[in-house]
Amino acid sequence: MYRFLFTATLPAVLAFGTGATAQDAPEAGGTLLPTLNIDAAADDGMVPFSSAIASKTDTPIERIPQAVSIITQESLVQRRPQNLESVVAYAPGVVPAPWGRDNRFAQFLIRGFDIGPYGVYRDGLPQKVIGFAGFAMDPYSLEGLDVLKGPNAVLYGETDPGGIVNATTKRPTFEPLRSGFVTHGPFGTWQGGADVGGPVGEDGALAWRLTGLYRDGETGLANSTNDRQFVAPALTWRPDAETELTVLTNWQKDKTTPALTLPVAGEDFPADVGALPGWMWETNPADSYYKADIASAGYLFSHEFSPGLTVRQQARVARQETDYREFYFNGMISETEMNYADFTVNETATTGAVDTQAQIDFDVAGRANTLLLGIDYSRMKADSSYGYDDSYTISIIDPDVSVTRPQPGAYYDGVQTIEQYGLYAHNQISLTDRLFASFGLRQTWVKNRFDDHLGGDDVSQDDSKLVWDVGATYDLDHGVTPYASYATGFVVNTGSNFEGELHKPTEAEQVEVGVRWRPADTNALFSAALYQIDKTNVLTTDPAHNGFWVQSGEVRHRGLELEANVDLTGGFSAVAGYSYIDAEITSSNDGDEGNRPALVPEHEASLWANYAFRSGRLDGLSMGAGVRYVGSSYGDSTNARETPAHTLVDAALRYRRGAVEGALNVTNLFDKEYYAICRAGGGCGIGDEREIQLTVSFDF
């Protein structure tokens, strides 16, 4: 399939001019290519000015009728996050790591929906989890990241209504680049990296970049690992100002440790039994690990046929081989005994995606239009074998998790394949000098297939869905821009009801109003948004037929988000955010109607501020600090057990002298002990403890 995909599309790219990227055009001839990068890095500093995540065309933030948070390259430099959850930690409406420490793949909530594994995109193409393949990305390989909040199915197809995050890979540069770093991190972790590139030859048509990292470390638990190696070569060819091809490749090898969840005295078992010994919270059970070998290759291509017509294509294939084993707490057997389960995964996952777009800029009755016509295709496939054995009993009073464990028998062995085809159109129009509107329409076809290697019960299902969105912005005086929008989305449900009818997709719709203010005399952007998201056709228990499901479930999320981005000439910069969510299960047969959905905090707030000295004796010194608050939530929809709120403080100190910079970064500065999640009968997952990194970076 992938061989056909690339041999068919690349000649089409060369013949018809497709793909996309956004580097500065060479001086000779032609006009500047429109930016396609869904690119936080294009904004120099902490304040965003444009993004393509909401339209797939370079659009000023004020013209986007939907909430967007941009994590720029400057933000990554100041905070030096070590995973994707930390990258988005200061974005309002986003809750990172709701399940606790887990390096297998990125996990986070957007607007209260748990979309981390399924809402991740890279360079505008899906990089979702399938099976246990997360295709993890290291922040050092990225230029920035955008968060689009709310349903966005018109441009991206099947996605959960909370939103998506899109990471922008580092691109070749036509200016010489030579940099590297060495970091000594927490728990004896050492890592080093290099980022080099520049032009090839003297004609300015070729540029290259090579980014790499090596890490050897632990997670803070005994018997743990936190190792990574990756290398990412990239090449850009720009023969003229109208044509550009960028090839991006990546090879990565990870070995890390799964999350740790344990029962708590007085909650999961009687307090008079006595708490678990402290070493249990500090030890990864022997032979629990997560190994992943990841490789990907893709391209972004663009050709401008005329000032009003640009055709683009972007494509990528990726492969991950996963070897995963975990010995974990699986509930209480009695007041003094725990059940443990041994779970194994042997899996090979492949993904492929291609997105072809034509951008047409034209006027109608003197009104400027930007019309995007697109066709996309994606395919995810996982060849998986899962083993499971829950026969282990561990004493609370004298626990021993070093028991000998034979390989568990397979309970799942098969191949899951998901294919999606889509046709979409999206138009932006200036109705007046102040009023701007957008409208989008998409038809999607989704095919799910499972080939069962154990029982031979192969199943397949085809779904289709028409979705649309509409929005408008209006420029008031003094940099104030209110907006309003309506958007729809969907998620496919596999299986059938008692009557044998296939489940319909779960549907979502969002109404959002907001306002942005960009002061004329200050480099700042302030945003506020009110929204309501309704999910319908949610699967819930069939009260008349045990073991079956009906689609009468409904969920509603209402919320408020506030965000501020400030970057002053005196050296002060800051990002701040607040989120309030009123979430409710409005219809259910599962006994949880009227309850709050799992994991959703009512309040969440954050502030990061940085001051850089730019003159005098302290020139080169930069100091930053941040605070993050996540309110209480429930571990499941029964609302039987609450996860307490927590507040964390981070700090950073940097000093640059010439080509060398030293940096000290600390997360959870006061080493706050907290639970990331607690579930009724399921124990609690601990949150991240204090982590200190000392980094020396240099240009050469």
From TrEMBL:
<keyword id="KW-0408">Iron</keyword>
<keyword id="KW-0732">Signal</keyword>
<dbReference type="InterPro" id="IPR036942">
    <property type="entry name" value="Beta-barrel_TonB_sf"/>
</dbReference>
<dbReference type="GO" id="GO:0015344">
    <property type="term" value="F:siderophore uptake transmembrane transporter activity"/>
</dbReference>
<dbReference type="InterPro" id="IPR039426">
    <property type="entry name" value="TonB-dep_rcpt-like"/>
</dbReference>
<feature type="short sequence motif" description="TonB C-terminal box">
    <location>
        <begin position="683"/>
        <end position="700"/>
    </location>
</feature>
<comment type="similarity">
    <text>Belongs to the TonB-dependent receptor family.</text>
</comment>
<dbReference type="GO" id="GO:0015891">
    <property type="term" value="P:siderophore transport"/>
</dbReference>
<dbReference type="Pfam" id="PF00593">
    <property type="entry name" value="TonB_dep_Rec_b-barrel"/>
</dbReference>
<dbReference type="GO" id="GO:0009279">
    <property type="term" value="C:cell outer membrane"/>
</dbReference>
<keyword id="KW-0798">TonB box</keyword>
<keyword id="KW-0675">Receptor</keyword>
<keyword id="KW-1134">Transmembrane beta strand</keyword>
<keyword id="KW-0998">Cell outer membrane</keyword>
<dbReference type="InterPro" id="IPR000531">
    <property type="entry name" value="Beta-barrel_TonB"/>
</dbReference>
<keyword id="KW-0472">Membrane</keyword>
<dbReference type="InterPro" id="IPR010917">
    <property type="entry name" value="TonB_rcpt_CS"/>
</dbReference>
<dbReference type="Pfam" id="PF07715">
    <property type="entry name" value="Plug"/>
</dbReference>
<dbReference type="InterPro" id="IPR012910">
    <property type="entry name" value="Plug_dom"/>
</dbReference>
<dbReference type="InterPro" id="IPR037066">
    <property type="entry name" value="Plug_dom_sf"/>
</dbReference>
<feature type="domain" description="TonB-dependent receptor-like beta-barrel">
    <location>
        <begin position="237"/>
        <end position="669"/>
    </location>
</feature>
<dbReference type="GO" id="GO:0038023">
    <property type="term" value="F:signaling receptor activity"/>
</dbReference>
<keyword id="KW-0812">Transmembrane</keyword>
<protein>
    <submittedName>
        <fullName>Iron complex outermembrane receptor protein</fullName>
    </submittedName>
</protein>
<dbReference type="InterPro" id="IPR010105">
    <property type="entry name" value="TonB_sidphr_rcpt"/>
</dbReference>
<keyword id="KW-0406">Ion transport</keyword>
<feature type="signal peptide">
    <location>
        <begin position="1"/>
        <end position="22"/>
    </location>
</feature>
<keyword id="KW-0813">Transport</keyword>
<keyword id="KW-0410">Iron transport</keyword>
<feature type="domain" description="TonB-dependent receptor plug">
    <location>
        <begin position="62"/>
        <end position="164"/>
    </location>
</feature>
